[in-house]
């Protein structure tokens, strides 16, 4: 058998890739040199593996050159932790939003690469209501939930955005705090027509 092939080589490559992925996930961005040092790999090997992880959505290289968890990593985490404490803790608030508005309510988190990921929904009770976006990603820029996840909304406050993610919808979003840190966004998404017009707030 040729050197560098076979089960042992495959296991080593997997171990190295997982080691790099762990470093990327455990830090708020990791430089190539730091990731290589933390895993004991040559920089060229680390770069090759990080590019493979990036190509498959498990890592993302930001404009500042740091590697962070990619969208696919976040999606898999959500799927594996569908009963995560954040979702369970937020469920009561989601139900309260639906009870007071009749519209669909969402919980979302930042997923890297300038996108947010919808973790949970409490379906609205209106005959015309927003569809289920759980598991879907959307750009942070221009959306109500995105503004929250980008830290543009103060704790205890909220933001209203019309025509943000898609036409003919209006969203209201507020931050979910974990101590002093914004952990997620709670939002209500509704068709725009009930929220506009004579005598309505825009």
From TrEMBL:
Which segments constitute the IclR-ED domain? 72-202
Q: Where is the signal peptide, in residue numbers? A: none
Kindly indicate whether the keyword Cytoplasm belongs to this entry. Answer: no
PROSITE patterns (UniProt xref): HTH_ICLR, ICLR_ED
Q: Specify one Pfam family.
A: IclR_C
InterPro entries, alphabetized = GAF-like_dom_sf, HTH_MetabolicPath_Reg, Tscrpt_reg_IclR_C, Tscrpt_reg_IclR_N, WH-like_DNA-bd_sf, WH_DNA-bd_sf
Question: Which residues does the UniProt record annotate as the domain HTH iclR-type?
Answer: 11-71
The protein's name is Helix-turn-helix domain-containing protein
Organism (species):
Arthrobacter deserti
